[in-house]
Write a structure and sequence with these properties.
With about 625 residues, this protein is mainly β. The protein has one domain: TonB-dependent receptor, beta-barrel domain (Maltoporin, Chain A). It is about 5% helix and about 60% strand. It has a 22-stranded antiparallel β-barrel. The chain is globular and about 75 Å long. It starts with a helix and ends with a strand.
Amino acid sequence: MSKRALRAALLAGVVLNVLPSLAQDQEPELVITPNRVPMSIQQVGSSVTVIMQDEIEKQGAKSLRDVLDAQPGVNVVESGGPGGAVSVNMRGTNTNHTAVLVDGVRVNDPTSVSGDLDLSIVPVQMIERVEIVRGPQSALYGSDAIGGVINIITKKGEKGPPRWTYRAEGGSYGTFSNKLSVSGATEDTTYSLGLNQYHTDGFQRFGYRVGRLAYLNPNGVDPMTRYGGSGKISKKVNDWLTLETGFHVSRERLQYDSGPMSEDPLAPNPQLGLLASAYQKAIAENGPFRTTLTTFETKISRDLKLYTKDTTSGFGDTNDRFVYSGRRLGAELQEDVKLGAYGTVTAGLRYETERAAGVEYGADYDKRQNTRSAFLLHKISLFEKLHLSTGGRVDDVSGSGTFATYRVTAAYDVTQTTRLRASYGTGAKAPSLYQLFVPIYNNPDLKAEKSSGYDVGIEQSFHDGDGRASVSYFSNRIENLIVGDASTWIPYNVAQATTSGLETALSYNLVPSWAKLKMAYTLLETRDEATGLRLLRRPRHAARFSFAMTPMKDLTIEPILRYIGERSDKYSAIGVSGQSVVLKAYARVDVVADYKVNDRLSLFARGENLTNAKYEEVYNYGTAGRSAYAGLQITW
């Protein structure tokens, strides 16, 4: 921990402890992801953020990227606007070091280069809330969860007659979207079903710079269309058995540019994508015992054509088709046992099989791997103030060996309004099927990436719960990090990388029911120990400020300022391999507004990038300029 970070942490701790400490009236919030069972967030030792549906809708989120953007410790990168590949770096780790779940079911893509999921394909309309758990979580969720876990929890019905909702929006770049949903519940059944559609003409993805003198061509378009549906149905069969099923499907069609490896970089290339996932659960409760059996299946496919022109190297014009099809299916058995004063034990077994098939540069492949897992977690509260958890897991991955991980957490209620928490854990990430077996660019000798990390934090509420503040310090060390060779693109293991930093957050009702201030700031230090350089596309400084105002009843206006500091990147093109570049710092100003006309009708609008800031998230890929959107929501 650097002296600068240590001083900042000490200062923040002093500030939090001298804030007024009065009892809060709000009930503790329940979360599922940190310990795999519903429990009060006040008893969780890990760093957790929960983003609710109301907040998602009020901010006019177009995609999951908008939901996650600028959350403490979360860095989101999008390659060229809506439809472009979206990656997430949690606490400086790679995008494939985040386990992405939908209702607790993993949806990472077996066919992607490193096994991560392109978050652009997840429709935001189906989300009820998002739970973000930071730090190594492989002890609970296995491979991938080195940086943390993002659990997308879909909507469920509430007791009452069918409730229909229609939401429509339109705006800049030829954007329009529609959503129709119905939900409700009877005495023993809840249901929620929805259809969604999104289209944008977009803008020219590549070519943000032209000879370093000009920016994006405002007349260029790279359209994207997505449509899909989702649903969740739960039935209480009797006093002890509940059955639940859920599904979501999303299909998208988009156009992207050939990019820097072509002499015609703006040549249009089409792509079709599909994400389909379903799960079935049987939950049996008998006294202190709760047994959950889950079966699941996820299918992800991509079909794209890539035109490239390279006369310099003698390849000439090529028009290749790339097809990828991935499938994950399996079952998991989890047993939760309440031991009274001795806490709760959670134990489980899991079997999963992954398949990745495809065609790349005319060569096809079809490979599978199986994973067998067992996990155990014990949670206990002592003296009604100290909340502890200890857990471990063993994963046996065919072809990649066996690895064990563990995690310990603690949360201590100093007072009713002051809470300390800490966690330490290890993580692991098995090589992807793509890295091991794809034609030409494979390395069958790759080892699993491994990590260890910890965080400590303090949370403080004040002024009768009108204000909340938190500060966390974290540190991670990753070994056997897998990277791609700049010239051959073949993956290999390097020595190690380290990440550390501070995460701070503050929310305060300046004038209750009228004005609320929210701030988040992340200080991130990263280092590739092999080169001594910072990891790519990770800003040292990232911040988000918003000021929600309610000047009249049922009208909310919220200006939002996002700041992302300077980052390093690498650029490759014909005749250029891995050239180091710098992406400048930028600030972006948005405004969102929501007006509830009555119980059935709401109007909303937002303006994005109001100062028309020119910035890049990926070198030479475009970002949206000044734009505006508006829409309505009808409920009946």
